[in-house]
Design a protein that fits this description.
Length: 265
Amino acid sequence: MSSAPEEVPIDRTRLVALLGANGCVAPGEEADELLAASHGDPAGLAVALTRRLRGEPLAWICGTAELGGQRLALHEGVYVPRRWQTPSIAAAAVDRLPAEGVAVDLCTGSGAVAVLLQRARPRARVLAVDVEPEAVRCARSNGVDALVGDLFGPLPAALAGELDVVTAVAPYVPTGALRLLPRDTLVHEPLAAIDGGPDGLATIRRIITAARSWLRPGGSLVLEHGPDQAAGVAAALEDGGMVRTSTVLDPDGDPCGTTAARPQP
């Protein structure tokens, strides 16, 4: 992407053309969001357009993102929830969360999954965890009860063995495949939220290993992962003493995650 021209094109038609010429895949939608975020202020639009043409995520510039019909606050530096499969992960978790149950969303980022859980189960207790302080601040701005720390580490000890559901959209892109991601993602977004290690499952394995101690017997673990990682996740679940229960399918019917359970005594 190039830098913005000195004279910013306020006219929507010209703005759409400029965004499209610089590689934006949905220039019309982006133009509308940039115009709305700038409230018609030419100087504000100039700043926003320059940032976008440098490759910054649109959600950082506008301060919001949409997932699963929910509009979320999005802070600069926080991973942008954009995978259309993620609402399927949240829906699978909702199906397993009692009305007044307890759920924890790990690697929460902006808190997107936690927000969807809380919306669907308003009487449940939903906690979220992320290792990045800015992500936790962002999640809290979305009304999420979020804690800073590594996976289960910051949770109250009293919740050990009591959780009904654990969800995680952990980093799962194999390190060697990062180069295939869009350049803007690699340059601007936090790689710690994307890089899953050599086979993409490093963090997922850690979650599985610890989950058995935190879930109640029969409690559910719901994990997002790539369609070609199901076998690796199944093996990790077996090693971790968990029982694989189902495959989560995205709206096209393709695998996008796995559910598992802590065995009943």
